[in-house]
Amino acid sequence: MKVLILNESDTNGGAARAASRLHSALLKNNIHSRMLVQNKISNQDTVIGPDSKIGKLINLARPALDVMPYKLYKDRTGSMFSPSSIPFSSILKKIKEINPDIVHLHWIAGGMLTIKEISKINIPIVWSLHDDWAFTGGCHIKLNCNKYKQNCGSCPVLGSDRNYDLSRVIYNRKKNSYKKMNNLTVIGLSKWLQKCAQESSLFKGKNVINLPNLIDTSIYHPINKTLAKDFFGINPNKKLILFGAMNAVNDVTKGFSYLKKALEKIDSSLYEIGVFGSFGSDEAKEFKQKINFFGHFHDDISLAMAYSAADVMVVPSIQENLSNVIMESLSCGTPVVAFNVGGNSDLIIHKKNGYLAKPFDELDLANGISFVSNGQEHNLSLNARSHVLNNYDDVRFIKKYVDLYKNIINQR
To answer: In the list 136, 158, 247, 380, which could disulfide-bond 73, CB 3.0-4.6 Å?
Structure first.
């Protein structure tokens, strides 16, 4: 069995890391797996990227070219939006050359594939959804907009009041393309996103299942907290509140502003703050607690060390699917506080391995931080680790992916 995993990058971003973990787990189980990416960063020979320097440069430019139609909307919100209309990709040609039994799509925006090209893949397709893009008219985070259940248009992300706007054009392209795809299995990585995909008009009649990301629990495991705090120069007498994501401070969807307000409501003398995914912020001057900016981690060991140093991980995002950060933190035995949105309830069992705060309620977020950081008697850390081992460990659960592939191939 030959599996080909497609993602825009092999290491950059949450979807890339999830796709790479699946790829690695397949290889460890003697499955012939390859990754095909638009931008290759690693040096793994099982990852296929552009063949030439010119190809690399063109691919680096594709994301900026792809969003140009979006930027014509002067009242756009700035939230991610992908038309996926840039032609002349070499991806289809490479798929034909590799000739796999299964093509497993992950995050394929950024100009990697046009919508029309997706429908031209004449091999059984599995598509893991990392956000809302596949079933909307172009937005990646739909928030409270339910137009994806009908036909999009008057898009809030575009700041548009016209029914026939760019989102409707993209919606129609997807509708026409998806009609031709009788070889598609859609994966909602969380139960919440599975439900959203099933309710969408674009995936009506398609096979939509729930199958989560996997994690290597031998890498993400608890490390002695005293040693981990010493590694980062954290006061051993202070509890460490950890926050982090790609572009952690500046991406409004990651909820840094909610964390900031919550921290105003807790005893500053008890805590230090750690932030990864950012090198600093002018807002740091306003914190009562000492704040440590760890910058960007480029390896799993440093991340596991950061999670282990923390007494509580806070993920105040306004929307999450199946958060890598939450899964990684729990796997390291560090309980998580997050808003009860999206797929967070798949990972966090309220007051068992973390705390699910009322959505966008800073006071309840603060209550969660206090509960978790003082909740040793609740066995939160042990429960955090065991929940991941029992539901997401790659050694135990890679069989579910292999069985899915085999069933699809046999049906063909």
So the answer is: 158
For 393, phi then psi, to 5°, come to: -60, 130
Q: What pLDDT, in 10s, does the model give residues 88-120?
A: 888 999 999 999 999 999 999 999 999 999 999
The model's confidence at residue 248, banded by pLDDT at 50, 70 and 90, is confident
The pLDDT score that the predictor gives to residue 87 is: 86
DSSP 143-192: TT--GGGTT--S-TTTT---SSSHHHHHHHHHHHHHHT-SSEEEEESSHH
Are the C-beta atoms of residues 277 and 244 closer than 8 Å to each other?
Answer: yes
pLDDT at residue 339, rounded to an integer? 98
Residue 241 main-chain phi, psi, to 5 deg: -95, 120
User: What are the Cα distances from residue 383, in Å, to 308, 338, 389, 397?
Assistant: 15, 16, 10, 19
Domains and CATH numbers, the chain: 2-214+394-411 (3.40.50.2000), 225-391 (3.40.50.2000)
Residue that the structure tokens 């320097």 belong to = 53
CA 159 to chain centre: 25
Q: Which helix (H) or strand (E) holds 290?
A: strand 290-295
% pLDDT > 70, the chain: 99
In whole numbers, what is the pLDDT of the chain averaged over residues? 94
Q: Report the distance separating Cα 147 and Cα 158, nearest Å.
A: 13
The predicted model scores a pTM of 0.94
Does position 282 have pLDDT exceeding 70, yes or no? no
Distance from C-alpha of 36 to C-alpha of 6, rounded to nearest angstrom: 5
Residues across the chain? 412
| Greater pLDDT, 187 or 268 | 187
Distance in angstroms (rounded) separating the CA atoms of residues 91 and 49:
10
Please choose, from the candidates 88, 29, 15, the residue with its C-alpha nearest in 3D space to the C-alpha of residue 395: 29
Place of tokens 């900031």: 260
Checking if the pLDDT of 245 tops 90, the result is: no
Do 104 and 211 touch, CB atoms closer than 8 A? no
pLDDT at 237: 94
User: What is the DSSP annotation of 62-114?
Assistant: HHHHHTHHHHT-TT-----B--------SHHHHHHHH--SEEEE---TTTTS-
d(CA 145, CA 141): 9
